[in-house]
Amino acid sequence: MAPSVSIRSLHYQYFDGAPFALKDLSVHIASGSCTALLGPSGAGKTTLLQILSGIIGAQFTTGKASGSVLIGDDEFRPIPQKVLFPSVGYLMQDASVQLSGIKETVEEELAFALDNMGIDGYERRERVSQALSRLDLGRLANRRPHQLSGGELQRTALASILVARPSLLVLDEPVNALDSLGQQRMVNVLRSLKSSTTVLFADSGIEFALAVADTFLVMQGGSILFSGTRNQFLNSLDSFYDLLPVNQWSELVRKWGKTTVHPRVAGLLPL
Amino acid sequence: MRFDVGEKLSLTLFLLLLSIVLPWHLNGVLFLLLVLFRYAFRPFRPVSDASRRRSSALASYLTIVVLLMTIVNGLLIKEGTLWPLPGGFTMSSEGVTFGLRTGMRLLVIAMSLLLFFGSTPIPRLAQFLQSVGWPVQMVMTLLLTLHFIDTVPDRVSLIFTAQEARGAPVRANILARTKAFFLILSPLLLSGIVESIDRSMALELRGFHGGAKLSFRGDETSRGRMTMVSMLFLILSILCIVWIILRWLLQ
Amino acid sequence: MIQFDNISFRYAHDIEVFRDLRLGIEAGEQILIVGPSGAGKSTFLKLLNGIVRPDSGDVMVGGLSTRKHPTSRLAAEVSVTFQNPAHQIFASTVLQEAEFAPKSLQRKNPRERAQEALRLFKLNEQAKSHPYDLSLAHRKLLTLASAVAADTPALAFDEPSVNLSRPEQLILLEAFEVLKKSGKTILIVSHDLELFLPICTRVLILDDGKATFFDAPEALVRNQNPLRHSGVRLPLVHRLRPYCGLSPIPHPGA
């Protein structure tokens, strides 16, 4: 059910003559996996995520692309030309803009996607209440969206995508406005989606990724510099010094390998 | 007496056209009548505290603007009967009349719009327009625009606060506030436009397209039908348009 | 330099934010303010320059009471920035934006001060650009530079690292180093403890209307209860470091 994603030699320019936002990008994302896309801003993470959602093919008519994108059984040459909602759910970086801006309550906001899909009645109520409880938004159901705090907004934005039950979930910095409690909640949400949904998320930090991702991709300048498992990532931290906030981690990882760690803690950072 | 959205809308249209037809003193009377409506007539009372405060504020600002406009025109225009003032200035009757004519018109237009938008919740309006056959994309655009306008006072306030926090006493007096307001108008609109581009992307990403109908809360099914009242005001509006055209042709 | 004396404050809809809050901040300190969302961290900053005035008690900044002076006067003592750049930026060039504060405060040579602040945040090359032509991360840095250009003895930043990726974070840390050396008092509200714990002198935890902790970061590591109670966690990397014989919080530049 959850699709795998294969990208082959993808190049993308926003318009003729523009610098390449994506350069010869090839990657395979396994079905049902949770992949972290890391890198500094400007590396092309958002472009890649937006291409997968279909919005770039649909809206940027001057864009120049080459290569191919395979999502599940659907192949796109070079990229999807229309929005792939609801099979692909996309969470924007700025949660306040993601919300429609025209709904009076959080509950109505969540139902917006269902209205567009023509889902009503029992199914609609069921899906909305499920999304509300999943993201702990129950007591905010009747709140006005513009009264929500940054963290509440981000949870509402994710809930408004999850109601559509996408099989590929693409998230752009899903935890940047959340404190540690909120991030922990998000970790639980993503863990509950494992295997039923393929998840790809971009982030500028690494703590959240370390808690939840199976595969790590590091991007810079439109290309993928690194692709590997969590342990491979931890062992290569030194190479990402300028790109990711890893300096404290690399010191830790270097020492970790050389000391005998208490078995109770060893499991926290298996190398 | 109940007024539904359609009836209020056609009344507002009639009032707007009436303001062009009437001479300034009758417009003045109409303005006062509308102010009375706002307080006494339930269908026209503001729906929320926020809109109540805003409409009062806007109405007072406009009255001051009109007063200033009249005085300035009176001072600058040198036609008609001239009344001498200290300091070598003169106040002309033509200038005052011109100022009043435009000013009263402005007041009636503003008050009519304030009455309508203040007493009609945005979703009600959108629901009505959708039921009379407006294309969904247009209704959505209108909704986004109205919601944006709704946020303007708050955004202005935030930027004013940010400027005060950097040492500029923008709220010290009305002059400072007005000057600061005009300076931040353009960046405000710019950030609104930038946001709306992202917002329209977000809508599409949640499946919004031409075919989908927007849903609204509440069990009140909006009547898209023409009532007698709406018909009346629409006919009166057409008569106004005819009068305006005739007046212009016969000049 | 900054004194909170028995501050109580509650919002109109009856949500109590602070109850008899009392604390003092010395000149030259760098304070990291943490706490659960909704604990009033942003309100705390707004109390510094009079945007919000306490219901009871007094906030003294640089010897001035926030009750007795307007925000524009208090702005000469403390520059406060907010989370969303869109709520602050209004000029048509980066330089104009940075100049606004020193000009409003009638500092000498406002243009030079603005240019110096832009250089500190590596924005000098974009001085003539329109702020909205900058990336979100650089607009964030611009709001910080605009506050620094005011050259006030104290600076307060609300979530300065949100929307910044690693390269911009490094610029931020370097800038803070410079400000620290010139003796500025800096207050930072942030949930990014990993980034700021190594550079602050004291940590203030605001929880449940009160200051539940106000001491050096090392003391916080020794006793993590106030953090746990407020729902804030010490970053994983800080918790793991002691297992390798490393100090939990590294010194800056490590």
What does this structure look like?
- The complex is a heterotrimer of chains A (271), B (251) and C (254).
- Chain A is α/β, with parallel strands linked by helices and 271 residues long.
- Chain A contains eleven helices and ten strands.
- In chain A, the strands form two sheets. A six-stranded mixed β-sheet of chain A has the order 6-7-8-3-9-10, sandwiched between helices.
- Chain B is an all-alpha fold and 251 residues long.
- The radius of gyration of chain B is 22 Å and the shape is globular.
- Chain C folds into two domains: 169 residues, P-loop containing nucleotide triphosphate hydrolases (Rossmann fold); 58 residues, no CATH class.
- Chain C is 33% helix and 23% strand.
- A six-stranded mixed β-sheet of chain C has the order 6-7-8-3-9-10, with helices on both faces. A four-stranded antiparallel β-sheet of chain C has the order 2-1-4-5, covered by helices on one side.
- The mean pLDDT of chain C is 89.
- Chains A and C meet through helix 7, helix 8 and helix 10 of A and helix 6 and helix 10 of C.
The oligomeric state is heterotrimer
Q: Categorize the overall geometry of chain B.
A: globular
Kindly identify the CATH topology of the largest domain in chain C. Rossmann fold
**Percentage of helical residues of chain C?**
25-40%
Helical content band of chain B: over 70%
DSSP strand tally of chain B? 2
Low-pLDDT ranges of chain B: none
Segments of chain C where pLDDT lies below 50 for 5+ residues?
none
CATH class of the largest domain in chain C: Alpha Beta
Separation, N- and C-terminal Cα atoms of chain C: 30 Å
Query: How are the strands ordered across the major sheet of chain B?
Result: 1-2
Helical stretch tally of chain C:
10
- Write down the Rg of chain B: 22 Å
Please identify the structural class of chain C as seen in this structure. Answer: alpha/beta
Pattern of helices and strands of chain B: HHHEEHHHHH
SSE order of chain C, as H and E? EEEHEEHEHHHEHEHEEHHH
- The number of distinct helices of chain B, counting runs of at least 4 residues, comes to 8
Number of domains of chain B: 2
